Amino acid sequence: MKLNNQIEIPELGLGVFQIPNDETADVVKNAIVNGYRLIDTAKIYENEEGTGQGIKEGLALTGLSRDDLFITSKLWGDNHSYEETVQNFEESLKKLDLDYLDLYLIHWPGTHYAYKEAWKAMEDLYKAGKIKAIGVSNFQKSHLEELLSYAEITPVLNQIELHPKLSQEELRNFLELHDIKVQAWSPLMQGQLLDNEVLKKIADKHGKSVAQIILRWDIQQDILVNVKSIKSERMIANRQIFDFSLDSEDMKAINSLNEELRVGPDPEHFNF
């Protein structure tokens, strides 16, 4: 999918949240071998070193080059001054052992709208060619309105909790209006949706798993997806979503599951 700065991003990526650093290298390596080209990490995950090692090993095994991959990391919320942003970016780059990032995100907005300096620093890093694209994560409409009031560069995407129980339609409409892509984290609601009867019925209809049905639901709505998996067989299964389509009846049934129910923090009140 093409972002608003014309950079292309894979629709489906691997997220490494809650994977211990000493296990991350193998997971990332296996993901690259199994066809993943987007790897998503963050400072707060404390596994950027393992991610970097896995990237190196995955490239060696596949013969791919660095430019074939799309690597994302994120700035944690207690480091929003200009100087702290630059310092934390450089530290992430060093831990990942990379020359540049494809995407750098402000991880959470916080409660005091204190990200103006961070965004300015990220704009400067982008202009210097150290980041291919910049964006935000967990920003609500009010945060984005604040950011857009002074931003020279519009965020390319907003990474948010999104799944059938939290469809975020109003926020998605706002993002579409401003040509900001949506990227979903926790698309399977931390596994809580895998026994849902509505989804199981649709999965049986298509001969697919519930996870594949949910990921397909995202893709058909032009929602980018990061999904966590540490097992190769699940990584492979999660990518097998491009050989079928959900019909309008399926989409309507899945959309009806929305309850505005979160499994993660509420961005309006989460201040780290």
UniProtKB/TrEMBL annotation:
Q: Which InterPro entries match?
A: AKR, Aldo/ket_reductase_CS, NAD(P)_OxRdtase_dom_sf, NADP_OxRdtase_dom
The residues covered by the NADP-dependent oxidoreductase domain are 17-259
Keywords from the named record: NADP, Oxidoreductase
- What does the record give as the active site? Y45 (proton donor)
Among PROSITE patterns, the record links this protein to: ALDOKETO_REDUCTASE_2 (PS00062)
Is NADP given among the entry's keywords?
A: yes
The protein's site described by Lowers pKa of active site Tyr is found at K74
Summarize where substrate binds, as residue positions. Answer: H107
Instruction: Supply one GO molecular-function term.
Output: oxidoreductase activity, acting on the CH-OH group of donors, NAD or NADP as acceptor
Organism domain of life:
Bacteria
- Family listed: Belongs to the aldo/keto reductase family.
Protein name (Swiss-Prot/TrEMBL): Oxidoreductase of aldo/keto reductase family subgroup 1
Q: What organism does the UniProt record list as the source?
A: Lactococcus lactis subsp. lactis
